[in-house]
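Input protein
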Amino acid sequence: MAVTAFHISVPDDVLDDLRARLHRTLFTTASDSTFWAAGVDPGYLRELVAYWADGFDWRKAEAALNAFPHYRAEVAGRQVHFVHLRGRRTEGGPEPLPVVLTHGWPSSFVEMLRVAPLLTEPDDPADAFDVIIPSLPGFLFSELPQGVFTRRGVAEIWHSLMTETLGYRRFGAFGGDIGGGVTQWLGALYPGEVAGVHTTSAVLTTDFSERPATAEEQAYLDGLAEYDVRDQGYSEIMWSRPDTIAAALMDSPAGLVAWIIDKYRDWSDCAGDLETRWDKDTILTVATLYWATGSIGSSFRQYYDYPHNRPVPTITVPAAITLSNEPAYANLPRSLPERVCADLRHWSTPGRGGHFMAHEEPEQVADELRTFFRPLRTEG
């Protein structure tokens, strides 16, 4: 399982074609006079596309990304891309604790880059982490898995990456969204190697046959179902007809970035103002990565294969939740994740930082990770 250094380098002809397509973009008109009420505001999209075509400096963004150490390795027969940052080491001091940070959709490794240096270079060297940030299978520079895409399957790949490829004996895990499911599967499957699991969202058991939902839990589940009716249009097409929508997004960079920022605005803790959390350069860095790798369609695989996922079994390793401040998790009772996590040691509701918390509130996430994992460094 050889590890090779990796350098991001988008060919000039790809960028030239992208710019030409952006200049030819056709825009729709708003279906509702209320700003963003019917999806991405056409006026904002026009402004963003114009900047992407004639203002955004991809080569500057590419150089900033390449300042991080990137690698690829063959794991389970497929290429996995990851960033690997070594934590500060002091003579006679403890070794940094390895931690794997897993993003979700429509995200990327970029989500974790703001928090990574805070983890590798803390004020107290005893709190240092080695940080590993893989790209999910089918996202950007990581190949789709062999067979179906499940959270459990990704956890198995990550375990192999961490223990066999990188040689870590013990490690922690953090993530949200898909990454939260992968993180919890790591804890459920590998209690001998996983020191603890920390998520910003809760994976809920769907089996209430032995212990019916309490009134508080049912009220939350009913509210979540109501929210999903308003929010789930994007997922309905991606799990039922992913190739249809992918055909449009693979051909239109404007459509691609619209599809992404629709969820960035909805799920971020931005009070409706997208750029308080995602400036244009960061948005377009992510969009250009998706465009240049042609991976928006393959990123949908985890939706199409979603029915193959099973409820996460009981997690016995120490667990932590720093709850995302987004509508899907409003009023989530602690008792629901406690049905899955037998040892929920850390429960935090800071009230800031949404679906992409590591990007939105990196200092908060770094502090929460240090606090949770500090006593676990010497356990096991």
